[in-house]
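Supplementary Methods, section 5.1.

A reviewer requested that the exact input to the structure prediction be made available. We therefore reproduce it here, unchanged from the version used in the analyses.
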Amino acid sequence: MNTSLLSLSFLLIIFLGTVSARSRGQSEHGFSQEDQAQCQLQRLNAQEPTFRIQAEAGESQIWDWKDDQFRCAGVVAARHTINPRGLFLPSYSNAPLLMYIVKGNGMSGVLMPGCPETFQSSQESQQQDDEKSTRFHDQHQKIRRFRQGDVIAIGAGWTHWCYNDGNEDVVAIVVEDTGNNLNQLDQNPRKFFLAGNPQQGFGGAEQQGREKYYQAHQKGEKQNAGNVFHGIEEELLVQIFGIDRETARKLRGEDDKRGHIVRVEQGFQVISPPSRREEQERRFDNNGLEETVCSTKLIENINDPSRADIFNPQAGRFNTLTSYDLPILKSLKLSAERGVLYRNALVSPHYKLNAHSILYCTRGDAKIQITDQSGSCVFDEVVREGQMVVVPQNFVMVKEAGEQGFEWVAFRTNDVAMQGTLAGRTSALRGLPADVIAASYRVSREQAMRLKTNREETLMFESRSRSPRVAAA
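The structure derived from this sequence is encoded cell-by-cell as follows.
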C-alpha cells in the first residue's frame, strides 16, 4: 500500500511539474512558445478596418484580428461610432480592454461583479389610473462621464455600456488584449451581450466579413445568435426573474433587429453627479471609499497639453498613461500614450522594451519606418488618419510628421511600458563613451562626439531640413 501511495505521489509530482513547465513557457503577456513563433514578421502594413457591423444608432468597424501583426501582439481592435441618443448595449469581453474617445462625449457604466450599487435615489410619480402616488427607488453602480481624449479601462468580464447624450457622434477606438493572462480562452474576440440581438443588422455588402465575424464570435447556429439569455429556455427565465412570458421573450432578444447600438428616443434618467468639475473638487474629500476596488478610478484624460510628460515648443508633446497614473491598469497589464507632432517634426528612433504597441492615427499623417532585429526595414509607409500600425516589442520606430502634423494614440501591452531611444539626450548613444562609438562605427572621435551631442532633446526633434517632406498622394 505504501508503495502504491509512493508511486501515485511520484506521478502527481511529474504531472504538476509538466503543468508548471508549460506555465513558465508562457510570457507574462500570456503567449506560449507556439504563439510567439507567429511574431516572425517579415513585413508590416498600415491597417484599416476590415469588417463593418451596422446598427440602428451607429456602427462598429473591426480590424482583422487574424492578420499576423494582430496575432503577434495578441490584440483585437475596433472603432465604434455611436450616434446622438445611441446606446451601446451592455456587454462584457473575455479580455481586458482600453477605450480611447477620439470624438464626442457621453456617459458610461462599468459593472464590476460583486460590487454594490453605490448610486441611489428615489422619485415620485403620479399614476394615471388612480390617484395613488407610487414611490420608485432606483440604485445602480457608478456612472462616469467621458469626453474627447479620455481613456477608459475595463477589465475582463466587466459589463459595460456607453450612451451618447451629446449632439455629435461619439467615436471610440477599442483595443482588447486577448493575449493577456486574464483571458484563458483562445485569442479570438468574444463579446457577450446582455441584451438585444446584436448579431442582426449587417448589410448585404458585408456578407463575407459577417461570416468571418461569426466564425470567431459564435458557435452553433450563427444566424440565430443573440444575447446571453437567448440560449436559456423561456420558462426558466420566467421562473428566475418572476416575469411574464412576453418580458422573457424580450429578455431573450427575440425579433429585435436594432443591432448592438440602439436609439433611446426619450434619453436617460439616471443617477449621476452634477458635473465633472464638482467630482474633481470632491476627489480629495472622501472617507476612504475611493481606495476600494469597487470605486476605483477607471477614466483618465491623456489629451491635456498642460499634463504633457514631454514637451518641445518647436516639435510637439507626448503624454503617457501607466499604472502609476491609473492604478487599475496594474491588474489589466495595459497602458497608453498620446502624441502630437507639429509640422515636419521628428520622433527619435525608439523602441518599447517590454511591450507591443498598437498605434492609431487620429489626425494628419507621418512617414514611419520600423526595423527588426536583423536591420531590415519591415515598414516604410505614410500613415494617415484612421489607420493602425502594430509595432512589435523591441522593433525600432522613427516618425516624421507631414505638412499637417501628426497625432496618434497608442495602446501598450504592459501597464508600465518602458521606452528606449537611440538619439537625443537620454539615448543609448549618449550613454556610450566616444571611443566606443568611434570604434563601433569606424568614425573619428570628433564625429563620434557629434553623434552623441548634436541633439539635446529627449524624444521629439524639430526638423532641420530645408526641404520638408511632401506627403505622398
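Residues 2-24 form the longest helix (23 residues). These observations are discussed further in the main text.
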